[in-house]
Amino acid sequence: MPQPPSIEPAQVSSVLSRRSTVALVFAMALAGAAGLVAWGPVSLVPHMHQFADQRSLWSMPYAVNVWSHLPLLPIGVWGMWRVSRLPGDEPLRWVWGWFFCCQMLATVGGMVYHWKPSDVSFIWDQVPRSAACSLFAAAFLAERIDRRFGLGPAIATALIATLLGGIWWLYSLHVWGVGDLRPLIWLELSPIALVATGAWTLHGHLLSRQDWMRSQLSFVVAQTVDWADRPFFDWTGQVISGHSMRHLALATCVGWVAWRLGSGSARRVPHNQPLPAGVILGESVVAQTSATSFPDSRLAS
């Protein structure tokens, strides 16, 4: 009977390190959820719909905030085209396709909201945006941890969770008089914790570590300039506000992902083969694992 290959201590350490990263990723996600529960209901503040740039153009109020969404529409279409160019047996095609679809819905919803800011129009912007963020997180988990996060059940779970978050907002608005945004906030911010924790130590095959980090850097920049809406507007001589710059930074984030998908930046491997018995790290076969356990050898690159 052939003897199993010997396992080097360094290989065992690498597997343990990856498993520790996975544990940290999920611990941070749970900690964020627990923190929001302890914080209590999060509602829209009274000045939520008051933006620094209130200029009208062609009788359209808040025109710059509305039209600064426009780059996200062709970028979303381009992203869908990039996804269609991935190999037919690529298991992450659907999760990325749904991501770009929700991103374009969020763009249209955002344009409607900024045209006529209100609590109701805000939720039409927030729900698809949270859905896009949750699918972004699912794509990261599918590529870095287990490809099942990118399959139909996981995609449906992400979309249903977002829909339930919107329903909870309506329910809490009806019962308490204020809509509770905690579920949608958690779904929107979860990719930051996931990518920041696991992008550098967990490996994938479609996007590189640098791709994930650069996309998240654009997202962080978008949030930062949004918080400095008025100061940024004054600093630029009232040319463009921080909120409008947020839309352009988000376009950079989505555009970078669309460009890098299928670019060959990470090692491509076939996806139509059954899982081997071992976990491949580089060229070494480590311990025996089940076909559904982490890590998936086809995602180790």
Produce the secondary structure layout.
Layout: H1 9-39, H2 63-67, H3 72-84, H4 93-115, H5 119-144, H6 152-176, H7 182-198, H8 209-227, H9 229-235, H10 242-260, E1 278-281, E2 284-288
Helix pairs in contact: 1-7, 3-4, 3-10, 4-5, 5-6, 5-7, 6-7, 7-8, 8-10
Structure in words:
The protein has 10 helices and 2 strands. The chain has helices at residues 9-39, 63-67, 72-84, 93-115, 119-144, 152-176, 182-198, 209-227, 229-235, 242-260; strands at residues 278-281, 284-288. A two-stranded antiparallel sheet has the order 1-2. Helix 1 (9-39) packs antiparallel against helix 7 (182-198), helix 4 runs antiparallel to helix 5 (119-144) and helix 6 packs antiparallel against helix 7. The protein is globular. The two termini are 31 Å apart.
Task: State the main characteristics.
3% strand; 2 strands; mainly alpha; 301 residues
Summed up:
The protein is mainly α. 61% of the residues lie in helices and 3% in strands. α4 (93-115) packs antiparallel against α5.
Report the radius of gyration as a whole number of Å: 21 Å
Uncertain regions spanning at least 5 consecutive residues: 265-301
Quickly count the helices: 10
Principal-axes geometry comes out as globular
What's the total number of strands?
2
Structural class: mainly alpha
**What is the mean pLDDT?**
81
Largest sheet: 2 strands, antiparallel
Quote the beta fraction: under 5%
Quaternary organization: single chain
- Ends apart, CA distance between termini: 31 Å
Element string (H = helix, E = strand): HHHHHHHHHHEE
